[in-house]
Amino acid sequence: MSTDYAYDEEGHLWPFFVFTLTSIVTVPITYSLIKSSRNDPAAALKRIHTDYEHDQSSVVDTLRKSEKRKDGSKPWLIALVIAGWAVMGYMLYLIKTTDAPVQNLWNPYDILGISESATEKVIKKTYKMLSLKFHPDKARPDASKNETIDDLNRRYVEISKAYQALTDEEVRNNFIQFGNPDGKQGFSINIALPKAIVSDGNGKYIVLIYFALFGVLLPYLVGSWWYGTLRRSKEGVLMESANRLFKEYQDNIDEGGVVAALSSGQEFEDLFKGDKADAGLSKIESKVMASDELPPKEKKKLEDVESGPRRMALALLWAYLGRIELGDATLEKAKFQVAPIAHALNKSFNAIALAYMNTAPLLASYFASQRLIQAIPPKASPLYQLPHFNSAIVQAVEGDSRVHTTVQAFMDQPDAKRRSLVVGKGLLTDAQYKESIAYAKQLPYLRVAKAFFKVTGEKFIIPSSLVTLVVKGRFVPPGSEKVPDVTPIDLEDIDPAEDDLDAILGRKKTKKLVGKDEKGKPIYEETTESEDVYPPLASSPYFARDHSPRWHVFLTDSKQGRVAVPPFTFVSFDRPIYESDGKTPTFAMQTLKAQFQAPPQAGHYTFVMHVVCDSYVGFDTKMEVTLVVEDASQAAEMKVEEEISEPEEDSIAGIMNAAKGAPTKQRVVKDEEDSDEESGTDDDEDDDTSDTNTDTEPEN
């Protein structure tokens, strides 16, 4: 037995090989390109409607576009994908149009032209007739059929083998066992490459190509990916930067200290290489030191930093936060470049603060994120978020008050009073005032209406159970008018029915509480939930990146200054925030849920709940909530007592009616109504298992 190797000279196999090899490369790259385009927030999310532009808006827009091109799809990668799909399409065309050679099985009956039921007499007669007709000494080649003597000889040999296979016992056994009268045959392996590729001296080039692909390019790509992951932390910053931020961490750090710590990132060394670290530094520092927007404490930190990339980065960060005009195009561009880098580094600092579980550094990290996105110095007024607002206008609003006025507080004032404060000579014009007010009325302020704890399917919370923190709130932009009242149904969180597997498993279809009937029983409606709703992109005229706002919900222990439950981050919501016009708020009640394990011991636990938005200053919520954990045995006893104290109405009504000899049906209905009226409020209380709820506006 031998093995024969044959190349694909007829071209029916190599398209499969090329198609497979091309798809291995093209499909993953295509998926990554599609995924990256979907992850682009600017491509999917709406924006706050405004025509406001500051003096450097063109610089910010240019940086945003350049960063999108940098983070987005590279042209050569797109060209590679297009070429890959073109090759795959051509290979599919060849596969469909090229006829593969058909290998017919050797069959002696077909060769002799007889049926398989033919007798031995018929076989001999047919063989004798064919041997006379196709004997090489008698047969002559047919020129019209391009026949040759060799063709006739092969045909005669096939006829002889077919006759022997049907008459000779040994040959017949070979045919039955191996499918061939000559016995077991060798293997034939076809190589899915055209023979021309590896012949005529082309073999060495094919070997060279294989070596380049699998010996050089593949190891390089794998090595680059591997060492690239080792160079950066999971937050996407350089490991050296994370190490420096770890050293800068302090338990009592504030947002100004966080900004100073962020300037130590190694990314700034790549931005300010060589002479760039000192070019224009003295000019920047002189303007920063002369500014009244920055506290003396922060100016002192700048003076203490050694010269180099870090000092340049910190000076530019303070110039950015103070919105200081530098009077130089190169410096202005660098000023807006450092803020997104610092914001990325802040993610790493946030992870470090969370590892320590101290409240102050974690809040400082979130507050620093707000200031970086809105370009507002630490401790400065939140009113700087509004278009056209400068120090003179903020001073006109706040006066000599030591407590800053939030955007919400400013917008809650009557329109006439607002106008009298900010419109006038040296202040805002009427058009600027209207633009600022329209802008403020679109900002997504999440007003928390209620927060409580519960265990799904249970009335009591016992030690070590899986507790759900339910936060109910509405997006009420500052200055909103005709805000509808909160209904009790909006504040309830009804557990899904036991047979509602879609809701239990978190699928789209669920039963929604839509109201109560006359007897106080809840009415459910099966609905199909819409897709996740995302708020508009953070409105940040000075921040040279598109950023999707995030809300962080976590619990802290105010006595110890520690984080009790780590933050849960929400980037999307379950109800529409704005109407189709993108401006009018829906005031729909949003539900945020966070699960954690209850304390191992029974008792009353008072926490401070923080709801922090990372994109807007002063849009945070801080309120106390109390978690009541019942002892497991006491909770079981109370549950039994409730079951005993609530017997079935039908049985009681039947006994009473039977005793009085009155018809039963009418009394049963009345007793059910009375029982429903009495238990209507109990159903509401059972829905919200826990304890501190608030229906008033919480502390901001």
Describe what is shown at a glance.
The protein is an alpha+beta fold and 700 residues long.
- Counted up, domains total 5
CATH class of the largest domain: Mainly Beta
Major β-sheet profile: 4 strands, antiparallel
| Poorly predicted parts | 649-656, 658-697
**N-to-C CA distance:** 88 Å
What class, by secondary structure content? alpha+beta
| Strand order, largest beta sheet | 8-7-10-11
Number of helices, counting only DSSP H or I runs of 4 residues or more? 25
Q: What is the β-strand count?
A: 11
Shape: elongated
CATH structural fold name of the largest domain: Immunoglobulin-like
Give the helix proportion (percent range).
40-55%
Gyration radius, to the nearest Å?
A: 40 Å
> How does CATH name the architecture of the largest domain?
Sandwich
The mean pLDDT is 81
CATH superfamily of the largest domain: C2 domain
Question: How large is the share of residues in beta strands?
Answer: 5-15%
Pfam families: DnaJ
Organism: Neurospora tetraspora
Main location: endoplasmic reticulum
GO cellular component, one term: Sec62/Sec63 complex
